[in-house]
């Protein structure tokens, strides 16, 4: 085989030729702005499995695919709702619900921010104030609980 013929053969999979699985396409469609919060939660339940399965051949392809389609306003709403509930919490149940919202949003953010290609993306950077507010409120409530037990 000549070198010209071998150069036209496909090489190993690159991120540019990534084609998501049908399952990931369906899951990502649940994470868009066009769906309800319950549908987004359902999509988030299977997302880790699908990302790990699809990233075996394409390390960042599935993440790029989902990131581009994800409703980042949903994550911000989770953070702000959690912060608001923490700020006005008057029962342990409300504190637990608020920290669940914040925890879910932070796990979503961590999934993507840990990859260098997303770490400076404007959609994630725009969440920084809400993350700081939620973190400071969460720390405040944790520390007051600890002092109350002393």
Query: SS-based structural class?
Result: mainly alpha
The biggest sheet, with number of strands, parallel, antiparallel or mixed sense and barrel status, is: none
The H/E string reads: HHHHHHHH
Helix amount: over 70%
Strand content: under 5%
Overall shape: it is: globular
Radius of gyration: 20 Å
Rounded mean pLDDT is 84
Structural account:
This protein is mainly alpha-helical and 150 residues long. It has two domains: 51 residues, no CATH class; 79 residues. It is 70% helix and 0% strand. It has eight helices and no strands. α2 packs antiparallel against α3 and α5 packs parallel to α8. The radius of gyration is 20 Å and the shape is globular. The N and C termini lie far apart (78 Å).
Summary, kept brief:
The protein folds into 2 domains: 20-70, no CATH class; 72-150. The protein has helices at 3-7, 22-30, 37-54, 61-69, 72-87, 92-113, 122-125, 128-149. It is built from 8 helices and no strands.
